[in-house]
Design brief:
This protein is of the alpha/beta class. It has 21 helices and 10 strands. Strands 2-3-1-4-5 form a 5-stranded parallel β-sheet, sandwiched between helices. A 5-stranded parallel β-sheet has the order 7-8-6-9-10, sandwiched between helices. Helix 5 packs across helix 10. The two termini are 28 Å apart.
C-alpha cells in the first residue's frame, strides 16, 4: 500500500515558489465560497512520526484565512474528557457549516497507538474501525466533507528526519510527549497496523489520501492541491453527497394509517395513587434518591435522564420531583427548544453531546435528540431520509453513553386525549399556568394520530437492551411521579451495586482499541 509513498519525489525550490501564490489564491477563493454553503469540512492529519504533520498544519493555516479554520490536537486527555465518553472530545471539535477543522490524528490516533503497544487485539481494532466508519458516514450524510491525509515515508527517510530533529532543541519533535516518540522505534509494526486501518476505513465517501512526506515542498504542494480539489468538487456539486436528498415539507409516515394498535394503546392509564400513599412514597423516594446521587458522585457514576411525552403529559412535574431530591450542585436540567443558529450549523446530535455530564453528575434532558424522529418528522422539519437514518444514529449515540458507564434512563410520559384536553383547559383557566399553553399545543393536538404512529416506531426502533424506553402512565400525576422517582433510584442503585462495572475514579472505559 505504501510503496507509492517511497518513490523519492521532489519539488525544486524555484518551482515551489512559483506555484504557491496561485495555489494560495485558489484555496482562499474556495474558502470564501465555502462560507456561503452548508458544508462543514473536517481535515484529518495522520501518519508516521517525523513526517512533518505539524509543518503541514502550520502551512495550511498560513495559506488559508484562519478566521474560518480551527485546529485540534489530541495528544492527551483532560480530566473533563476522561470523565466522558471518548467521542465527546471529537464532537466538540466539529466545525460549524461553512468552516474547516484541521484535526491531528482525530479518532484514528488512539486505536493505532493502542494496537501498536498491544493494548488491544485485531478484533477490537476492527470493531473500533467499524464505529469510526459509522461516525464518518453519519457526518457525511449530514453534509460534511471529510478529507483524510496519511503522511508516509520510508524507514530510512524517517530515521534521517528524526535524527535531524533530535539535534534541534527547538524542533517540534523535541516538544512531543515522550510516548509519541516511541512509535518510530516500531516502524514495521506501525506500518502494518496503519495499512490495516487505512484499508478498512477507506471508502468512496471518505477516502484516504496517501502523501509522500520525505520532501517537504512536494508534501505541502500535494496537500494543498488535494484539499483544493476536494473543496472545489464538493462546493460545485453539493447534490453529489449522500445527505443531499431533496427536502420535503410533507411528513411521510411509513406505518400504515390503518394500523390502529400501537405500543401506546397498551398502556394502562387507569392506574392511580391515593394522596396519603403519594406523600409517604414521595418523601421516602426523594430521600433515597438524594443519598444515591451523592453515592454516585463519590463513585464517579454519571446519569442521563431523558424525558419525552405528549404535550401536558407531565414531564415538568416529574422532572421537578426528581431534581428536588438532588443537591443542585450535582445536576443540570437542559430544556430543549428549537435549535439556535449555532446549533443549526452543526449535526443535530452536537447540541446534546456537548451537555453530557462529567463523572458523578446528572444531566436531565427536558425533551431530547428524539425530536428528530418526532416533531421534526411529523411537522416536516426533517427530510424523510434524515429522520429515517436518525434511528441508527441515536442507537449508536446511546450505546456509547452506556458503554462508558453512564446510567441512561428514557421516559415517555403518556396520557389520554381526554386528559390532555382537561389539562389544556386548566392551563388556560389558571393565570400562573397560562404560560404553558400556546397555539402550537392546540395545533399539535390535531395531529395526535400522527404523533402516536411516530412514537410507536420510535419505541420499536430505539428501545434497546442497553437503553430501553420506559412508558409511564400519566393520567394520574401522583402515580406517574412516584413511578419515575422509583425507576431513577433503582437505576442508579443497580449501577452502583453492579460487580461487573469497573469504577476507578473516572468513568469506566470500554476495553478495546478506542479506549483512552
Amino acid at each position: 500500500m505504501f510503496e507509492g509513498c517511497k518513490l523519492g519525489r521532489k519539488v525544486p525550490k524555484a518551482d515551489f515558489k512559483e506555484q504557491v501564490p496561485a495555489l494560495r489564491t485558489d484555496l482562499l477563493h474556495e474558502q470564501r465560497r465555502l462560507r456561503h454553503t452548508q458544508i462543514p469540512v473536517v481535515v484529518i492529519v495522520a501518519g508516521v512520526e517525523g513526517a512533518g504533520k505539524g509543518e503541514v498544519v502550520n502551512r495550511l493555516n498560513a495559506w488559508l484565512d484562519t478566521r474560518g479554520v480551527q485546529t485540534h490536537a489530541f495528544w492527551d486527555e483532560t480530566d473533563g474528557e476522561r470523565q466522558r465518553p471518548r467521542y465527546w472530545r471529537f464532537w466538540r471539535s466539529l466545525p460549524p457549516r461553512g468552516e474547516i477543522a484541521i484535526v491531528f490524528g482525530a479518532w484514528y490516533q488512539a486505536p493505532i497507538e493502542r494496537r501498536v503497544t498491544g493494548h488491544c487485539d485485531d478484533s477490537q481494532l476492527d470493531a473500533e474501525l467499524t464505529r469510526i466508519s459509522d461516525f464518518e458516514r453519519m457526518l457525511i450524510s449530514d453534509g460534511a466533507l471529510v478529507v483524510k491525509f496519511w503522511f508516509h515515508m520510508s524507514e530510512r527517510d524517517q530515521k534521517a528526519r528524526l535524527s535531524s530533529l533530535s539535534r534541534d532543541d527547538r524542533s517540534r519533535w523535541k516538544m512531543l510527549p515522550p510516548k509519541k516518540k516511541d512509535f518510530s522505534v516500531h516502524y514495521n509494526r506501525f506500518e502494518q497496523i496503519a495499512e490495516r486501518v487505512i484499508r478498512q476505513s477507506d471508502s468512496g465517501l471518505s477516502p484516504w489520501y496517501l502523501i509522500e512526506a520525505a520532501d517537504r515542498r512536494y508534501r505541502d504542494l500535494t496537500v494543498g492541491r488535494t484539499l483544493l480539489d476536494a473543496l472545489r468538487a464538493r462546493i460545485e456539486a453539493p447534490e453529489a453527497h449522500p445527505g443531499a436528498e431533496p427536502h420535503s415539507h410533507a411528513p411521510s409516515l411509513p406505518i400504515s394509517e390503518s394500523a390502529k394498535i400501537t405500543v401506546l394503546d397498551q398502556v394502562d392509564l387507569s392506574q392511580e395513587l391515593a394522596a396519603p400513599a403519594y406523600r409517604d412514597d414521595l418523601h421516602q423516594l426523594q430521600q433515597e434518591l438524594n443519598e444515591l446521587a451523592w453515592q454516585a458522585y463519590k463513585s464517579s457514576r454519571s446519569t442521563v435522564l431523558v424525558f419525552e411525552g405528549i404535550d401536558a403529559g407531565g414531564k415538568g412535574g416529574a422532572i421537578r420531583r426528581v431534581t428536588n431530591a438532588i443537591d443542585s450542585r450535582l445536576y443540570r436540567t437542559i430544556p430543549v427548544a428549537p435549535p439556535s443558529d449555532e446549533e443549526k450549523a452543526h449535526h443535530y446530535l452536537w447540541r446534546f453531546w456537548r451537555h453530557i455530564p462529567r463523572a458523578g453528575r446528572i444531566t436531565v434532558y427536558d425533551r431530547s435528540w428524539y425530536g428528530r424522529v418526532l416533531v421534526e418528522r411529523v411537522e416536516g422539519f426533517a427530510a424523510e431520509a434524515e429522520w429515517r437514518r436518525a434511528y441508527a444514529e441515536i442507537n449508536e449515540f446511546e450505546q456509547q453513553l452506556t458503554e462508558s458507564g453512564i446510567v441512561l434512563l428514557k421516559f415517555w410520559m403518556h396520557i389520554s386525549q381526554a386528559e390532555q384536553l382537561e389539562r389544556f383547559k386548566e392551563r388556560e383557566r389558571v393565570p400562573y399556568k397560562q404560560h404553558k399553553i400556546t397555539d402550537d399545543d392546540w395545533r399539535n393536538r390535531e395531529k395526535w394520530e400522527d404523533y402516536k404512529l411516530a412514537v410507536n416506531e420510535m419505541v420499536i426502533r430505539t428501545s434497546t437492551e442497553n437503553a430501553p424506553w420506559l412508558i409511564i402512565p400519566g393520567n394520574d400525576k401522583r402515580y406517574a411521579r412516584v413511578v419515575v422517582l422509583r425507576t431513577v433510584a433503582e437505576g442508579i442503585r443497580k449501577a452502583l451495586t453492579n460487580p461487573d462495572t469497573d469504577v476507578t475514579g473516572y468513568l469506566p472505559r470500554p476495553r478495546g482499541c478506542g479506549a483512552g
